[in-house]
Amino acid sequence: MVFAKFLRGPNCATVKKFIPDAQINFLDKKTHTPLIDDQDDSRIRKEIDFNPRSFEEGVKCLIQDVREGN
User: Fold this and answer.
1) Cα(39)–Cα(37) distance, rounded to whole angstroms?
2) Which of 2, 49, 56, 58 is such that its CA lies 20 to 30 A from the CA of 64?
3) Rounded CA gap, 56 and 12, in Å?
């Protein structure tokens, strides 16, 4: 199963936690990533009591959506 073109390093391990036999392929050239790395979300957490889910929970939800065809 080819899951995503934007996963690298530790992110691959997160996917493999849910899909151990996943085959993750990478493009030869670097492309835009939809992920935001090292974001400081302390202000929004404080101002509006926003508590985003973890990266792992987001991956789990995405996998479920893909499996359900959403």
Assistant:
1) 6
2) 49
3) 11
